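RECORD TYPE: inverse folding
INPUT: structure tokens
STRUCTURE:
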């Protein structure tokens, strides 16, 4: 097999970097994944996907099937891969393949296309760098993994709204009182789409102010 893959130095900060089996498996999947859409055994295997089985991975990596199973579960738990079983093999998708292998490094920081169904491919989702921006702003740093899983399933178009709302909420009395005792867990805030509520409240306040101005003008005339 010819060719090469990109490997950014940022991988050293990846949470599985110090887990030898999981790191070895992920790097192996990056190497084996299709760099373009191809048909394999009558099935379409897209860019960023690799058809494989645990036994084959065990032989290729010199690891036990149990270690392969555990490492796959690790990668699934952190949203690095998805696994779709078929009647012939399992199809593994590297969720952020474009982030790792895109040609332009600048674009790689913002590319977030998920390689799943044709319909889903049209949707642009958050990426790790977006989450780190959110996490840096969020004052209650509890259960980062759950928060990240939720965040990565949100549309990227929501990012400006989320960050703006979060910056405003951080200085709100409801969060600053009692030393931040009432700041919700980040996953709770994301699940409840609180940023949307806060933006909607702002809109309602703006409408109220506008109505008051109009009423005042009417009374003057």
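DESIGNED SEQUENCE:
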């Amino acid at each position: 097999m010819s060719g090469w893959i990109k490997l950014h130095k940022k991988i050293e900060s990846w949470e599985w970097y110090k887990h030898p089996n999981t790191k070895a498996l992920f790097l192996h999947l990056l190497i084996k994944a299709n760099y373009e859409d191809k048909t394999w055994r009558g099935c379409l295997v897209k860019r960023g996907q690799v058809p494989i089985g645990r036994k084959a991975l065990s032989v290729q990596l010199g690891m036990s099937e149990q270690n392969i199973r555990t490492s796959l579960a690790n990668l699934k738990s952190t949203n690095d891969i998805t696994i779709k079983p078929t009647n012939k093999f399992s199809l593994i998708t590297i969720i952020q393949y474009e982030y790792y292998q895109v040609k332009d490094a600048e674009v790689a920081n913002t590319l977030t296309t998920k390689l799943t169904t044709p319909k889903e491919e049209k949707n642009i989702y958050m990426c790790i760098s977006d989450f780190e921006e959110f996490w840096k702003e969020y004052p209650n740093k509890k259960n980062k993994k759950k928060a990240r899983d939720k965040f990565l399933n949100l549309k990227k178009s929501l990012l400006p709204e989320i960050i703006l709302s979060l910056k405003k909420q951080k200085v709100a009395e409801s969060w600053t009182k009692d030393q931040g005792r009432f700041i919700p867990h980040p996953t709770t805030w994301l699940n409840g789409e609180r940023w949307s509520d806060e933006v909607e409240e702002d809109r309602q306040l703006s409408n109220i102010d506008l109505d008051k101005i109009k009423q005042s003008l009417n009374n003057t005339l």
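NOTES: The chain has two domains: 9-121, 128-220.
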